[in-house]
Design a protein that fits this description.
The chain has about 575 residues and is of the alpha/beta class. It has 14 helices and 20 strands. It binds 1-O-alpha-D-glucopyranosyl-D-fructose. InterPro entries: GH, GH13_cat_dom, O16G_dom_2.
């Protein structure tokens, strides 16, 4: 239906403000830099941008530690700059989604400072999760919950009289105290923050750690396997050996023990309130997109019920190895679970927390965690990774639903894997003493112009993270207008997707599908347009059906109607 809401088939480009465009040359990206480069995104052919946090922050977690939700950090600019960015984007026909971080504040937020000063039992402390410690003199943390970034999930404070005092909960860094969402003051504050940004004209919110806001009552110890507490895989299935019968049952039903800090029932009440707040705003529709690492997909689909969020990132898709059978299963399940609640699916391959897919897909695909590179892991095969990444992108953009694209993937940027440790800023790296290499490798400043200081990122040669040598030849100016470049591939795919409204089509498996081949037909509702999408993950070339007219290919020329290894095609049938 052509009258579908804008977000059903939108392609949304994630900008990581520190690393996209630096207007003032201090080595850190900023809002004026972004505004000046927005025409690039109009020409790329995306519908919207999502901006990672730009709020006032001490930047212990790159801005996901917010000290003031209603103002811009000086490193990024000012509220006037934000208004200008939103206006310019709208003039160019781009919608603007901002990041909302409601699980925790920065420890420098005025509420948290007040909580520290006010002491135990105060209403100020009741906005966060302060508890007495256990053991002799409260020396032990209140429970056994770890931090996602490594180490304990609790930090003990020193009270005003200098004595060791209460502990506060932080699922992430010590500098990111969790709010207590059972306190109505917290809910009211966030309703007001949502309204503040709606009034400034934003078109939606990406909701950080949407599965974590509400904790199980009583904050019980977790007796289950510790790996289930990793925020990116909270399923009971994750703790069982692959192929286990119980694991298969849990995968189907979503039953099984649930860690006390993830995917609690109470989070849904929060999103119902936000949805009605957004529904009351003037049109066009403003959206909520859940960042919720929730499995199985039947549990994730509960976040996109009609009175809750509009979208939820499909991280199962991102997390899946380069394996046709597994990818087909994820696609089937995603459609089934989303159809059941009447929501379109939201596809994603990369973001600022995971290894870029141009490198991830060039790693040994038998490794257990495809979205992380351990410190001692082998280097990815760059050529193989890029070849597969281009095919994966054609798979994603050929599917009905919305897609998120992470800055730089349209250039085929690899992960920066050989960054000297002294540059690393991610708390994951520091809290695990380097055992986890962290996420800096996917956050390196964008290359725009090969022969310019900072590769055209800004007017000076400064960049907050070093740009690897491989980025120069991939700069925008090197790919612009060059046939076969990854940038031109994205442009032509996005343009065809828009013309043919592929995001609003319906997908049916094609008879070529099976074994190492993914093949489906994306058809328009009136049957007037049928696009065959074929991805070959196997060693042998795949024969296209007679009469199929190839319009796009991710790799080497498709000769005699055959699709080579690790290549995807779109064809008219
Ligand atoms: O991430 C939530 C999250 O749980 C993971 O992606 C996490 O970052 C990863 O497992 C750590 O290795 C969101 C943001 O996207 C991330 O950048 C923030 O650090 C995190 O929340 C805390 O706000």
């Amino acid at each position: 239906p052509s009258d579908a809401p804008w977000w059903h088939d939108a392609v949304i480009y994630q900008i990581y403000p520190r690393s996209w465009a630096d207007g003032d040359g201090d080595g850190v990206g900023d809002l004026p830099g972004i505004t000046s480069r927005l025409p690039y995104l109009r020409d790329l052919g995306v519908d919207a941008i999502w901006l990672s946090p730009f709020y006032v922050s001490p930047m212990h977690d790159a801005g996901y530690d917010v000290a003031n939700y209603r103002d811009i950090d000086p490193v990024f600019g000012s509220l006037t700059d934000a208004d200008a960015l939103i206006d310019t984007a709208h003039d160019l026909g781009l919608k603007v989604i901002v990041d909302l971080v409601p699980n925790h504040s920065s420890s420098e937020h005025e509420w948290f400072r007040a909580a520290l000063a006010a002491g135990p039992g105060s209403p100020e402390r009741a906005r966060y999760v302060f508890r007495e410690g256990r053991g002799e003199n409260g020396e032990e943390p209140p429970n056994n919950w770890p931090s996602v970034f490594g180490g304990e999930g609790w930090t003990r404070v020193t009270e005003a009289d200098g004595s060791p005092g209460q502990w506060y909960l932080h699922i992430f860094d010590t500098t990111q105290p969790d709010y207590d969402w059972t306190n109505p003051e917290v809910g009211d504050e966030f309703a007001s923050i949502l309204q503040f940004w709606c009034d400034r004209g934003v078109d939606g919110f990406r909701v950080d750690v949407a599965h974590g806001l509400v904790k199980e009552e009583g904050l019980p110890d977790w007796d289950g396997p510790m790996q289930m507490l990793d925020a990116t895989d909270t399923s009971a299935e994750a703790a069982l050996p692959p192929g286990d019968e119980e694991s298969a049952r849990i995968h189907e039903t979503g039953d099984g023990p649930r860690p006390p800090m993830w995917d609690q029932e109470g989070v849904h009440d929060i999103y119902r309130r936000w949805r009605s707040l957004l529904d009351e705003q003037p049109s066009p529709e403003r959206i909520l997109c859940a960042e919720a690492w929730v499995k199985p997909e039947s549990r994730l689909a509960r976040y996109v019920r009609s009175d809750e969020m509009h979208q939820a990132f499909n991280f199962d898709f991102l997390d899946t190895h380069w394996n046709a059978e597994k990818l087909r299963a994820v696609i089937t399940t995603s459609f089934r679970e989303n159809d059941a609640v009447g929501a379109p699916t939201t596809w994603v391959l990369s973001n600022h927390d995971v290894v870029r897919h141009a490198s991830r897909l060039g790693l040994d695909q038998s490794l257990p965690r495809p979205n992380g590179i351990a410190a001692d892991q082998a280097q990815p095969d760059a050529a193989l990774g890029l070849r597969r990444a281009r095919a994966a992108t054609m798979l994603m953009l050929g599917l009905p639903g919305s897609s998120y694209v992470y800055q730089g993937e349209e250039l085929g940027l690899p992960e920066s894997t050989d960054m000297p440790h002294e540059f690393r800023q991610d708390p994951t790296f520091h809290r695990t003493e380097g055992k986890e290499i962290g996420r800096d490798g996917c956050r390196v400043p964008m290359p725009w112009v090969k022969d310019a200081p900072s590769l055209g990122f800004g007017p000076s040669d400064r960049t907050w993270l070093p740009q690897p040598a491989s980025y120069g030849p991939l700069a925008v100016d090197q790919q612009d207008g060059v046939e076969g470049s990854t940038l031109e591939l994205y442009r032509s795919l996005l343009s065809a997707r828009r013309t043919d409204r592929l995001g609003l089509g319906s997908a049916q498996w094609h008879k070529l599908s099976g074994g190492d081949v993914i093949a489906f037909v994306n058809a328009s509702a009136d049957g007037s347009r049928r696009t065959l999408v074929v991805v070959n993950l196997g060693a042998d070339p795949v024969e296209l059906p007679e009469g199929a007219m190839v319009t796009h290919a991710s790799g080497d020329r498709v000769d005699d109607g055959r699709v080579p290894t690790d290549v995807a095609v779109w064809a008219r049938i």
